[in-house]
Amino acid sequence: MIYLFLDADDYLFSRRLSELKAAMGDPEMADLNVTELTANQTSAADILYHAGTMPFLAERRLVIVWGYLSQLDKRMGASKGTESAAHTEAARIFGEMGDLPASNDLVFVESSIDKRRQLWKGFSGEKGTIPGLAELIVSKQVTSEEMGTPDVKQINGWIARTAKEQGIAIDSQAVQMLANFVGPNLRQQANELEKLSLYAHGRPISAADVRLLVSDSSEGLIWDLTDALSQRDGRKAMRSLHDLRRGDANPFYLLTMMARQYRILIKVKDAVSRGGGNENEIAREVKESPYPVKKAMQQCRGYRMDELEAVLDRLLRADFAMKTGADPETELEILVAELTQTRAR
């Protein structure tokens, strides 16, 4: 089989790779029949040689190629015509990989492929029309699998499905809290599910279990960001945003967390305006834990209620822009810049 794994999340790919290795038979012999090649150190001839070699004392052979097609695509795009070395290489790899032994799996792992270009659509060369990846996928010569990390709105479903696959009972509030606390880090999500399952010992995992055992890895940094926004400190806010990005935080997840924090600010400001008392009393009223309520009591002083509602409206417009073509990271930077320029009156 020939596979194309696109936008491969590390955890999803590792699980899929385990499945392919399991099909190879004896694990000790399987390790001798796995070859990994990287884009900068391989060629069509090299790939075809390794993928064409029969398995050694095993049922199957597995060849994994990292980033080769993406690099080939760029080389083809930079060439002046279809007679270039890159086009010749594409013609060879696409023309000959269908003749590989049925016992061998060839896996191309790619971050992305430009579907507007010749590698995907195909091209005409000296040897006639060369089919692109799209045609090879339709004809089932290549099996394409999207392995991107779920976005923030899909995390809940992923947690619920993974728990069900593993026979782990978990209630919907616990799923939501795990999604909020851990975000799109699938490997950590899987580890937390296993830990929670052991703790629950047969009963459904509850929100109380998640609150007790799982640390909110992003909440502290998100509060740093909203703290800076409430102080209209543009430099600090941008630095906090960049800190979150360094942790591979999904832009849509960041936007969702920002919206969550501002909703807490609105609830807390409303409670304070009605003489709500200390953070513990307000926490019980607004159904949040005391720490975020204490932070919100400090931050909401920098806003009028109509300003907080305007911020939520601006977050909604940013969400729409990001889902309709705007670059998510640029949109977040513009959003932070705008929010730190607004002055409370």
Walk me through this protein's architecture.
The chain is of the alpha/beta class and 345 residues long. The chain has three domains: 2-146, P-loop containing nucleotide triphosphate hydrolases (Rossmann fold); 155-213, Helicase, Ruva Protein, domain 3 (Orthogonal Bundle), CATH 1.10.8.60; 219-341, Zinc Finger, Delta Prime, domain 3 (Up-down Bundle). Helix content is 59%, strand content 10%. It contains 18 helices and seven strands. It has helices at residues 10-22, 27-31, 44-52, 68-78, 85-96, 118-121, 133-138, 155-165, 172-182, 186-200, 207-213, 219-230, 234-246, 251-273, 279-286, 290-299, 305-323, 328-341, and strands at 2-6, 34-38, 61-66, 104-110, 122-125, 128-131, 143-146. The strands form two sheets. It has a five-stranded parallel β-sheet with strand order 2-3-4-1-7, with helices on both faces. Strands 5-6 form a two-stranded antiparallel ribbon. A hairpin with a 2-residue loop joins strand 5 (122-125) and strand 6 (128-131). Helix 8 (155-165) packs across helix 9 and helix 14 packs antiparallel against helix 17 (305-323). The protein starts with a strand and ends with a helix. 32% of the residues are buried. The model has no long low-confidence stretch (mean pLDDT 86).
